[in-house]
């Protein structure tokens, strides 16, 4: 009787050790991490330190404790700049969000043409400086084509960027024009994640477009909309270049937003310590607003099963 010899078990190739994957991941992460440390973390820590000093580039930084923050609390221009910035943010975010949401829904419900999405995004491809200069020419009181059209319709020319009442709303609308397409495409991407069979079932039940918008679109779009709001609010509080090329903070500080005041204090009056203190204050304000937005909008949760 022959006993069949059992063959030795086949050896499987050893899986790559975790250490190799970790080293490969570190290689890919290193450039972004280096940029984060050099261009974000270090300037932030340096700015926090300078906020407690008196520093003008010509002499070594001198520690003054909370003097800069005390000055900031009693500085009427700082509070005026903060008020102007909040006014700009409310106008910009309100109009931009509603318009972008409407454009995104129309793109999703009526057409999904890539060409149309490209046209919607076109203003965003222009820099803020170029957009500001173009609209400065268009809205010029004497020679601007915009005011020429207004005059042709029988109305008086409007000093959009030279009047205290019109200046901030005009700057807000310029930035709405530039950013609304990008915001709309972010919301459009969120709408694409909503299952289409929900709309089909709602149509079968006789739901109108308006009812489907409030009962399906808005609840399921909420996480994306919350993130978009957080991003746009942070960006709006940092408005600078449009103001710099159109009004330079005027007339009579009517558009002297906080970022422009910080810039003027640092590079116009060389008060880097005081400018750093205002920057830290802005950082704290944005952190608090972001935290509240995240909690109130439940950005980390979704109604999709």
UniProtKB/TrEMBL annotation:
Carries keyword Plastid? no
Coiled-coil features, chain-numbered ranges: none
Record's keyword annotation contains Transmembrane helix = yes
Which keywords does UniProt give here?
Cell membrane, Membrane, Transmembrane, Transmembrane helix, Transport
Compartments (UniProt record): Cell membrane
The residues that cross the membrane are 21-42, 88-107, 114-138, 220-240, 272-292
Q: What is its main location?
A: membrane
Membrane topology category: Multi-pass membrane protein
Domain (ABC transmembrane type-1) ranges? 82-293
Q: What does the similarity note say?
A: Belongs to the binding-protein-dependent transport system permease family.
Q: What is this protein called?
A: Sugar ABC transporter permease
Organism of derivation: Streptomyces prunicolor
């Amino acid at each position: 009787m022959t006993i069949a010899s059992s063959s030795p078990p086949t050896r499987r190739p050893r899986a790559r050790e975790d250490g190799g994957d970790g080293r490969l991941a570190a290689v890919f992460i290193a450039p972004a991490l280096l940029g984060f440390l050099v261009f974000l973390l270090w300037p932030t820590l340096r700015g926090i330190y300078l906020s407690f000093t008196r520093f003008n580039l010509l002499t070594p930084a001198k520690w003054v404790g909370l003097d800069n923050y005390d000055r900031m609390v009693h500085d009427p221009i700082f509070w005026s700049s903060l008020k102007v910035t909040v006014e700009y943010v409310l106008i910009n975010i309100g109009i931009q969000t509603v318009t972008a949401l409407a454009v995104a829904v129309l793109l999703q419900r009526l057409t999904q043409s890539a060409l149309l999405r490209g046209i919607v995004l076109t203003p965003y491809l222009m820099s803020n400086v170029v957009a500001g200069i173009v609209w400065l020419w268009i809205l010029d009181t004497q020679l601007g084509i915009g005011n020429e059209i207004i005059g042709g319709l029988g109305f008086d020319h409007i000093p959009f960027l030279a009047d205290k009442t019109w200046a901030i709303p005009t700057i807000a609308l310029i930035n709405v024009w530039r950013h609304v397409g990008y915001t709309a495409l972010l919301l459009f991407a969120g709408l694409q994640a909503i299952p289409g069979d929900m709309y089909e079932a709602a149509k079968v039940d006789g739901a109108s477009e308006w009812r489907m918008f409030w009962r399906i679109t808005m609840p399921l779009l909420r996480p994306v909309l919350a993130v978009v709001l957080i991003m746009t609010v942070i960006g709006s509080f940092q408005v600078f270049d449009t103001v710099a090329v159109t009004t330079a903070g005027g007339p009579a500080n009517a558009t002297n937003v906080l970022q422009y005041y910080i810039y003027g204090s640092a590079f116009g009056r060389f008060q880097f310590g005081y400018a750093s203190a205002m920057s830290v204050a802005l950082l704290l304000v944005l952190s608090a607003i972001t935290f509240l937005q995240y909690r109130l909008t439940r950005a980390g949760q979704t109604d999709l099963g």
